[in-house]
Amino acid sequence: MTNRLAGKRALVTAAAQGIGESIARAFAAEGAKVVASDIARDKLGELDAVDGIEPVVIDVLDQAAVEAAVRGHGPFDVLVNCAGFVHHGSILECTEEEWDFAFDLNVKSMYRCCRAVIPGMREQGGGSIVNIASIAAHKGLPNRFAYGATKAAVVGLSKAIAADFVGDAIRCNAINPGTVQSPSLDGRINAFEDPDAARAAFIARQPMGRLGRAEEIAAMALYLASDESVFTSGTQMNVDGGMSI
Question: pLDDT tens-digit profile of 47-63?
Fold first, then answer.
């Protein structure tokens, strides 16, 4: 531990597993006080014993719940928006209800959290917002119609916030992961008729020949949250195993 986030208070959403959990653990290991939020109360409880992490159940689809959590646990120096949902299918398989839900969870949850956290960052003299987007934001992937559209919106949201608050020393950046090994990915793979073939296909589309690790995304989030990146805002960081080459 080098205390890269010493003295900082961070809110990480979707922190019960996968990328969010890895980010929460990495931040705490580097000295941050982390509010790790999720709706999965049981899985979130596994973080109870981690020094520096306070698990808090927050439904990011509920504006009032988000605002109450920020009032009760903030202000925050760092916000990491990880909550998301991957819809499988083209426009022909995407119902209006699925489209609306994808935008509510993948984009509007970030709107809610950013809107609640930014005033406190302003009062404190700055902060860092890290939004988890996807390589699908700017690279068309088969059967990722709704997901790609939402993640492109996340990139636009991030750039707009960066532009609006650069004078307040509030930075906002997006991370575009490639395909990352996670419980969420396992669930999607197991839904296929042939999970082994599905996993092989996910790996094959990664030029490095392997899936990413959640810890590798957390390393980028740690950099963007730290003072090492104070001259970085409005950017997209591709951590995608070469998918964007």
Answer: 999 999 999 999 999 99
